[in-house]
Amino acid sequence: MAKTFHIKSYGCQMNAYDSARMADILAGLGYRATARAETADLVLINTCHIREKADDKLYSDLGRLGLLKAERRAAGGDLTIAVAGCVAQAEGEELLRRQPAIDLVVGPQSYHRLPAMLAENGRARIETDFPPEPKFDRLPPPGRRGLSAYLAVQEGCDKFCSFCVVPYTRGAEYSRPVAAVEDEARRLIDQGALEITLLGQNVNAYHGAAGDGGVAGLGALIRRLALLPGLKRIRYTTSHPGDMDDDLIRAHAEEPKLMPFLHLPVQSGSDRVLAAMNRRHTAADYLRQVERLRRARPDLALSSDFIVGHPGETEADFQATLDLVAAVGFAQAYSFKYSPRPGTPAAAREDQISAVAKDERLVRLNALIQSQQQAFNRGFVGRPLEVLFDRPGRHPGQRIGRSPYMQSVHATIAAPGLVEVEIAGIGPVSLAGVPIGAGAERAA
Ligand code: SAH
Ligand code: SF4
Ligand code: F3S
Description:
The chain has 444 residues and is of the alpha/beta class. The protein folds into 3 domains: 4-127, Rossmann fold (3-Layer(aba) Sandwich), CATH 3.40.50.12160; 136-378, tm_1862 like domain (pyruvate-formate lyase- activating enzyme, Alpha-Beta Horseshoe), CATH 3.80.30; 384-443, CATH 2.40.50.140. The chain contains 14 helices and 21 strands. It is globular. The protein binds S-adenosyl-L-homocysteine (SAH), iron/sulfur cluster (SF4) and FE3-S4 cluster. The site of iron/sulfur cluster has 10 residues, from helix 6.
């Protein structure tokens, strides 16, 4: 009987992409996917190191898997436990020491070596190099991904923000050649993808080798991909405000397949904190980018990430963040309490902010963001939106999808796909739609 695998994925979209690629590798080795760890021969946890909470979850998962493995062994069977992703990269050997039940540890830049590691069974237990050969050249072609697919075009980060582990866990910036990206996009489209989200830790710093011997930026890459027949929507994430160049902004004005939504993390509205964070931009720089973007695409919906309670953040600094949020008007945003990460400069500072102050600031920031999200969504009631329905909803017949502006929309739709709906109402974080036009005939 074929061996089975189960992958549990934490963290960002890049990790979701990597998990899918690792599933491709395992399928190529003859493994079959299974929905539960309890029925798998191989359990792979793809980990995230960004905040402390993610680490805690990993160790409780590993505890449970360790017990499962012991039970299996007592009954004459076995379980292979693999840890991949950013904790694997950051902790390496330490993971094996803390949880001896782990069989394999593999970092985000070396998972193309999984087949060799599995074949060596117990001897090559750890791979956390940043190998000279890019893994992308060694991966099997992507399998079926559905209507909306991720495609990694850039990886790593050279920015070294004070708080962030990503430059250490993902390594230096690397951009895939245009032809390799096109090739992967074509395969995803052939297998049914209507939407592709281009991924990178600093995706707008993309500078891939172009066929003509030159270098293509992200704007040029998007224009090339937009020529692919069958592809309806293009998105990209995550961007740094400092890398938003003219050509990319122009693509927002000129390329109809590029969706009117941008996740552009700013982290703070205080220049003092932004400097301490080593973000290399001011609040005014950010507002200027927003203005340029909105001039190019007036209906552009904006999203961001915020950190509250970075070391040294005063009440006045936090107020500057609220002011920036008020000035921009976000369609949605994520906010996080600063979490000290081992090895990062901010973690070593002595002016850490109390948990109470972080909690209190997070509540205030979230309230403002939520009111902006509600106001943004309310503006769509009674209006038509084209939604890519790609997931089943909670109720029978219901499906969930994304609007061009990245809003989550649910409606009763017979089959997945792009459907025009009229927005009938809004919930706390999602919209309710009713199919109209051709979509109405496809409704159940
Ligand atoms: N590549 C992405 C960052 C991924 S991390 C980018 O550059 O935008 C996603 C978000 O997590 C960051 O934008 C930041 O807001 C948050 N984050 C990163 N490190 C953190 C930390 N130590 N504590 C709290 N939030 C953090
Ligand atoms: Fe982390 Fe900053 Fe790089 Fe984003 S730009 S991945 S926050 S170091
Ligand atoms: Fe987490 Fe690594 Fe992504 S730390 S957010 S999985 S790049």
